[in-house]
Specification:
The chain has 351 residues and is of the alpha/beta class. The chain has helices at residues 2-14, 17-24, 31-41, 86-97, 111-117, 133-145, 164-167, 205-215, 227-235, 257-268, 283-291, 301-333, and strands at 43-45, 60-62, 65-67, 71-73, 101-103, 123-127, 150-154, 219-224, 241-243, 274-277, 296-299, 346-348. Bound molecules: flavin mononucleotide (FMN).
C-alpha cells in the first residue's frame, strides 16, 4: 500500500541507520522477511458479484471486546527509539482507532504508564520469560493490576535469530532518557543496551499453564507455525494462537505465515481464535488472512514507520488507511461482514 511504502522510505531517510536497520531487518539472509510478504501476494482474491454489498462492516468481537477491525498492533520492542512518545503514542492511536495495542516486554515505557495513556482501551501484554520466575510473576501481577486483558507468550525466541544487519552496527545507541522498562516500576538495561534478548527462554508446554496460573489471565501463544503445535497449545489451555515467525527475525527460511495459517486454522477448528502476523501490508492481506480462517491480524513494521514519521497521528493515519482498505476489499469481494469472508474468497496462484 502506497502510504506504507512512503512511510518506510521516509523513516529510512530520517532515522539513524542502526535504528532503521534494527526495525527493518530480519534474520539470516532475510528470506523469511521477504517471503512473508510474497506468500500473501501468492493468494489470489476471489470476488463474488451482485451480492448487494456496497458497504462492508469490518468490525469483529474478540474476547468479548468489539474492535473496529480485525487489525491489531503487534508487540514491537523499544518504540521510543523511533519517537519520544513511543509506546504511549501507539496505545493512544490504537484506542482511538478502536483496536488493541500489545505492549512488548522489551518496551521503553513501563506497563503502568502505557495503561494510564489509554485507560479504557483493551490492552495486551507480551511476555518474554527470563530465568527469574519471581520477577516474571511480579511483572504478571502488575500487568493484571493495570488492566491488561491477555498475556501474549512469545515462544519463537529460545535464542535470538542471527541478525546480521544489526550486528554490522553494534549496539544501538539509545537517545538520552530512553531506557528499557523492567515493568516492575524501574528500568532494566543501561541506556546504551542493544535491545536483543535470548539464550534464557528454554520454555516448555508446562510454562503456558504456569503463566496462566500466576497471572490469572488468559494466555495466548505467539510464534506457532504447525498444526501439531497449535493442537498442543489448545490442550495446554491457550486462549488463542498467533501464527507468527516474528516478522522473519528468528528462524530464517522457515514457513511464511500465509502458508502456515490454513493448516493451523484447520487443526484448531474454531476451539480458540487464531491470529496471524508477518507481511500484512494492505486490506487485501487482511481479507486473505480472514479467508484462511484467521480471526484477526497484527501489524508490526508498518506502524513502527508511521510512529517514526508522525508520532501518534502517524500511527492513527496508518490504522485508518488499513481499516478503510479492509472494508473496501470486503465490499469488492462481496462480503458485508467479517463472518461472510470465507475460504472461497482466496485461491492459491500456484496450486
Ligand atoms: C523491531 C521489531 C521488534 C519486535 N519486538 C518484538 C517483541 O518484543 N516481542 C514480540 O513478541 N515480537 C516482537 N516483534 C515481532 C512482532 O510482534 C510481529 O510478529 C512482526 O513484526 C510482524 O511482522 P511485520 O513486521 O511484517 O508486520 C518485533 C518485530 C520488530 C520488527
Amino acid at each position: 500500500m502506497e502510504i506504507l511504502r512512503d512511510l518506510q522510505v521516509k523513516a529510512r531517510a530520517t532515522l539513524p541507520r542502526p535504528v532503521y536497520d534494527y526495525f527493518a531487518g530480519g534474520a539470516g539472509d532475510e528470506r523469511t522477511l521477504a517471503e512473508n510478504d510474497a506468500a500473501w501476494r501468492a493468494l489470489w482474491l476471489v470476488p463474488r458479484v451482485l451480492t448487494g454489498v456496497a458497504v462492508a462492516d469490518p468490525s469483529v468481537e474478540l474476547f468479548g471486546r468489539r474492535l473496529r477491525a480485525p487489525l491489531l498492533l503487534a508487540p514491537v520492542a523499544a518504540l521510543r527509539l523511533l519517537h519520544p512518545d513511543g509506546e504511549v503514542a501507539c496505545a493512544r492511536a490504537a484506542a482511538d482507532a478502536g483496536t488493541v495495542f500489545c505492549l512488548s516486554t522489551r518496551a521503553t515505557a513501563d506497563l503502568a504508564e502505557v495503561a494510564a495513556a489509554a485507560p479504557d482501551a483493551p490492552r495486551w501484554f507480551q511476555l518474554y520469560m527470563g530465568p527469574d520466575r519471581g520477577t516474571v510473576a511480579e511483572m504478571l501481577r502488575r500487568a493484571r493490576e493495570h488492566g491488561y486483558e491477555q498475556i501474549v507468550l512469545t515462544v519463537d525466541l529460545p535464542v535470538a535469530g542471527r541478525r546480521d544487519r544489526e550486528d554490522r552496527h553494534g549496539p544501538v545507541a539509545f537517545p538520552a532518557g530512553v531506557t528499557l522498562a523492567d515493568h516492575l516500576g524501574g528500568v532494566t538495561d543501561p541506556a546504551t543496551a542493544k535491545p536483543v534478548v535470548g539464550g534464557w527462554q528454554a520454555l516448555t508446554w508446562e510454562d503456558v499453564a504456569w503463566v496462566r496460573e500466576v497471572s490469572n489471565l488468559p494466555v495466548m501463544v505467539k510464534g506457532i507455525l504447525t498444526a501439531e503445535d497449535a493442537r498442543r497449545a489448545v490442550r495446554a489451555g491457550a486462549s488463542a494462537i498467533v501464527v507468527s515467525n516474528h516478522g522473519g527475525r528468528q528462524l530464517d527460511g522457515c514457513l511464511p505465515t500465509a502458508v502456515a495459517l490454513p493448516d493451523v486454522t484447520a487443526a484448531v477448528a474454531g476451539a480458540v481464535p487464531v491470529l496471524v502476523d508477518g507481511g500484512i501490508r494492505d486490506g487485501g492481506d487482511v481479507v486473505r488472512a480472514l479467508a484462511c480462517g484467521a480471526s484477526a491480524v497484527l501489524i508490526g513494521r508498518p506502524y513502527a514507520w508511521a510512529l517514526a514519521c508522525g508520532g501518534q497521528a502517524g500511527v492513527a493515519r496508518v490504522l485508518e488507511a488499513l481499516i478503510a482498505d479492509t472494508a473496501r476489499t470486503m465490499a469488492l469481494v462481496g462480503a458485508a461482514s467479517v463472518a461472510q469472508v470465507g475460504p472461497a474468497h482466496v485461491r492459491p496462484s500456484h496450486p
